[in-house]
Amino acid sequence: MPSYTFRCSEGCHFDALFSMADVPTTTECRACGGLAKRVITAPHLSAAGNAAFQLLDHSARSAHEPAVVDRLPSRGSARPQRVTQNPLHAKLPRA
Ligand SMILES: [Zn+2]
């Protein structure tokens, strides 16, 4: 249910929840009891790009698109092994 902002003639303003079909243009002020008019405000779309929403999107996506390895890495893309040619290195203990 969307939240609508109302402001009365005394300067109070408050948010109220109404269904989109039933939202009135005026309502009773919650602070002073006067007549409060509905104020047009920007929708809260800017929150959709922040880190919390990105985490939620990533979590939801990982539930049905898990990032798993489905094949072995190809030999061509593996890092080349550095092989020493020094004969003294052959005597070193192996891990
Ligand atoms: Zn008021």
TrEMBL record:
InterPro entries: Regulatory_FmdB_Zinc_ribbon. Residues 64-95 are annotated as: Disordered. Pfam families: Zn_ribbon_8. Residues 1-41 form the Putative regulatory protein FmdB zinc ribbon domain. This is Zinc ribbon domain-containing protein. It comes from Leucobacter viscericola. The lineage of its organism: Bacteria, Bacillati, Actinomycetota, Actinomycetes, Micrococcales.
